[in-house]
Recover the amino acids of this structure.
């Protein structure tokens, strides 16, 4: 029975009507009605005139948030793979620093790291002779590179840990089979070890990417105007307490839902038998 | 500027060490309070999700989904402002005077609500990992539901829950830093104030980092001991 039910849930193309019927129980209809009622009340009684005025800025903020998420996840993951690998097969002078890096970054708050980079390093850079003339200077004066850097460092540390477990968890027999076929170490890594580890880590990476999305608003504290930064401007401009924050929460809910759906699509594309 | 002025970290007033330690203590207080509140909410939430009727289960699902999908920073702002606002309105409605909520209580409340959603999931999964026969046996002995929970369910789920709960404790200690954004003077905010006043940013942020890291490492040691103790009846080789 439960098997059939779970099959039905998974096979969404099968019979959407029947599925909807199972899901829509009377109390759920009431709950949805209450939820819609609250939304309607918020729309009716709240002040939303500012939406038109700030619309362009909100889109811009959304773009900044998504760009921060994508770039920090990408850069962070590129570092996470060698960090994870070094901890599994590296010699002590590689695995030690990798482990220390993960422990230190995971043991301190991201907000502190962000402020350390922005205020701490940011105050040191101008003292380096010749840096004002270099091509880096225009970037070092902006806030967003520090935001991307600290988000990427944090993601690299957390995912380095995840990839360590994933690399270690690939069955030794599969690697031996690859070696028996005469694959070079690089080919073995590229064709077997990395794909299999990625496959194992995918569900965890999904959760971690959602966590990363939820970390992005911290960059607003170093004057990067992401979605949260725009909403902060709205709040100080209109002196409204609830409406901007509720809209913000709603947008993040939607973004999380979209992220989860995207990852589920990828997870379903890979057959999982015996994993 | 080149050399490091360690005197800035001295405990007495020309140095900022005492201020940092006071902030550190407040961070730990909030983390502890919020974590305990989160545990209580988590046990309640897990019970609701496992044994509640359909309505309660859906309400719990909504709570955990929403809290886990919205950034902590946004939740903290929402709960911090709306919590104090609603409480004061309630007080006015009951004809009492507006109360001034201490930052400590508000911080504990906010961290607790966030932690509650995560610990609900951890505890629910841990309870589901208990062999069902144990709970059935307790029921067969005629124990009341409360007694079953106190004597069997909670102790038996502990070994399964400890890794997740330990993780949540570490998250709680780091989430207290977010309260700096609403102006609560815990470690991160006082660090920023000290750094701003002396212009020695790197020194103070590194010092605060050492304090947070120390807390994490000490916690890890204690967690290891607790885990060992909680698992003492369980065979080691569990595939």
């Amino acid at each position: 029975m439960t098997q059939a039910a779970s099959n039905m849930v998974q096979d969404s193309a099968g019979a959407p009507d029947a599925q909807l019927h199972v899901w829509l129980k009377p109390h759920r209809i009431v709950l949805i009605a209450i939820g819609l009622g609250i939304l309607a009340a918020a729309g009716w009684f709240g002040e939303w005139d500012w939406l038109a005025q700030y619309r362009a800025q909100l889109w811009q903020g959304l773009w900044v948030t998504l760009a921060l998420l994508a770039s920090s996840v990408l850069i962070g993951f590129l570092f996470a793979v060698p960090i994870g690998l070094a901890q599994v097969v590296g010699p002590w002078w590689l695995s030690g620093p990798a482990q220390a890096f993960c422990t230190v970054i995971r043991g301190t708050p991201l907000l502190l790291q962000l402020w350390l980079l922005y205020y701490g390093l940011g105050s040191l850079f101008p003292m380096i002779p010749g840096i004002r003339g270099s091509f880096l200077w225009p970037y070092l004066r902006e806030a967003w590179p520090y935001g991307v850097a600290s988000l990427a460092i944090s993601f690299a540390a957390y995912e380095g840990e995840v990839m360590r477990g994933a690399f270690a968890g690939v069955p030794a027999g599969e690697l031996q089979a690859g070696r028996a076929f005469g694959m070079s170490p690089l080919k073995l890594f590229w064709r077997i070890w990395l794909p299999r580890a990625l496959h194992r880590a995918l569900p965890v990476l999904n959760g971690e990417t959602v966590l990363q999305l939820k970390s992005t608003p911290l960059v607003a504290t170093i004057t990067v105007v992401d979605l949260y930064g725009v909403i902060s401007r709205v709040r100080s401009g209109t002196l409204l307490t609830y409406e901007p924050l509720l809209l913000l929460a709603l947008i993040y809910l939607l973004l999380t839902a979209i992220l989860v759906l995207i990852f589920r699509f990828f997870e379903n594309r890979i057959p999982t038998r015996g994993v | 500027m080149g050399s490091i002025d360690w005197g800035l970290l001295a405990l007495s007033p020309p140095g900022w060490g005492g201020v940092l330690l006071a902030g550190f203590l407040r961070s730990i207080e909030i983390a502890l309070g919020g974590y305990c509140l989160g545990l209580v909410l988590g046990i309640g939430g897990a019970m609701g999700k496992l044994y509640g009727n359909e309505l309660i289960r859906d309400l719990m699902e909504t709570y955990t989904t929403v809290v886990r999908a919205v950034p902590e920073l946004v939740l903290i702002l929402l709960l911090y402002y709306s919590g104090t606002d609603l409480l004061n309105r309630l007080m006015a409605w009951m004809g009492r005077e507006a109360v001034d909520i201490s930052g400590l209580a508000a911080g504990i409340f906010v961290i607790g609500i966030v932690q509650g959603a995560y610990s609900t999931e951890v505890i629910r999964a841990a309870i589901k990992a208990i062999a069902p026969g144990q709970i059935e046996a307790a029921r067969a002995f005629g124990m009341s539901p409360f007694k079953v929970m106190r004597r069997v369910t909670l102790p038996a789920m502990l070994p399964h829950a400890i890794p997740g709960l330990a993780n949540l404790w570490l998250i709680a200690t780091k989430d207290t830093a977010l309260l700096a954004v609403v102006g609560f003077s815990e470690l991160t905010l006082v660090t920023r104030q000290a750094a701003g006043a002396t212009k020695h940013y790197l020194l103070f942020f590194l010092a605060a980092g050492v304090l947070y890291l120390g807390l994490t490492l000490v916690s890890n040691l204690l967690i290891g001991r607790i885990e060992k103790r909680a698992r003492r009846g369980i065979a080691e080789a569990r595939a």
The CA atoms of residues 84 and 163 of chain A lie 5 Å apart. Chain A touches chain B through 42 residues (CB under 8 Å). Chain A has a mean pLDDT of 85.
